[in-house]
Task: structure prediction
Amino acid sequence: MKAATLLFAVTTMLLMAACGPVDAPAPGGAAEELGQSTAELHTCTNSCSATGGPSISCTGNSCSSASNYVVCDGQYTYCQQPPPPGPCADFTLHCPGSSTILRCPTQTQVCMEWTSCSIRCDGVERRCPTPSGTVCPL
Result:
C-alpha cells in the first residue's frame, strides 16, 4: 500500500514538473492574431429638408451626408419624397365678413362645404371665427 502511494506521489510530481507554468496571453495579442480590431462608430443624419421627406440617419465606421442621402460604410440611404397631396389640397372657404380662409390639410381625401361658415375635412368640421353672439348664416 505504501508502495502504491509512493508511486502515485512520484507520478504526480513528474507530471506537474513537465507541464510547467502557463504564461498569460499578452493584452490585445489574441485579437491581433485573429485579425480583429475595434473602431469607433459614427452616425450621420440628414433632415431631408431639400425633398420634404422624413429625416434619415445611418451608423457605421465611416459616414457622410449630402443634400438627399447619407452613406455609411458604402451603403446609401436616400431621402423619401413626401406623399402627393390628396384631392382636397386646393379646397378653400372664404369666411363671410372676415379675411379668414379655411383650408383642409393637404392629405384630406373627403372635403365639402358644410355650412356657409364651415367645411368638413375627412369628417372633421372646421368653423370660421365668429364674434360672440353672432350666428353664422346658413
The first helix runs from residue 2 to 19. The chain has a mean pLDDT of 79.
